[in-house]
Amino acid sequence: MTTFNVHFNLRKMAAAGALMAGMAMAPAALADMYFGVNAGPMMIDGASFDDPVNAGVLIGKEWGVVAGDIGVQAEFTTTINEGSFVYFPDVYDVSIDTQAIYGAFRTAGPVYLIAKAGLLREEVDIGGFSESDSGLAGGLGIGFSLGVAQLELEYTVVEEDVAYASLGVRF
Questions:
Q1: Is residue 71 a contact partner of residue 60, using CB atoms and an 8 Å limit?
Q2: What is this structure's pTM?
């Protein structure tokens, strides 16, 4: 009778099996993921403000439904060109950073509509004085499919007197 002296390690076998299963499922899981970048003015109501310009990144996951795609996306923006606030005779730099999580809906087709709503946290800095706030935010937009990328133009209400008009690319 022949016996094989093979050291059997259940933990290593389970880890190898989990790794192989993860590698097999990864393409399917990533198929519905997207990421993108956007930029535009953070528009502040009031005659004394010159609007800062923000740039952002987003990452999301979407699921197809009959009329389009529903999904969840995280978006982060930061000021890349400071605005200003004039309080005569002084002028103060203005910047706004945001972090948000949205539920999003995009209609089907090569030209599509976008609607999103969710929770947003913002940090506003005016002349070294900083304050943060959290609340509900929402936006509307239009997108254009360009092969592997989508060009999106959005208007997002950040808070009562601040809105973000952005042009972005999503992959």
A1: yes
A2: 0.80
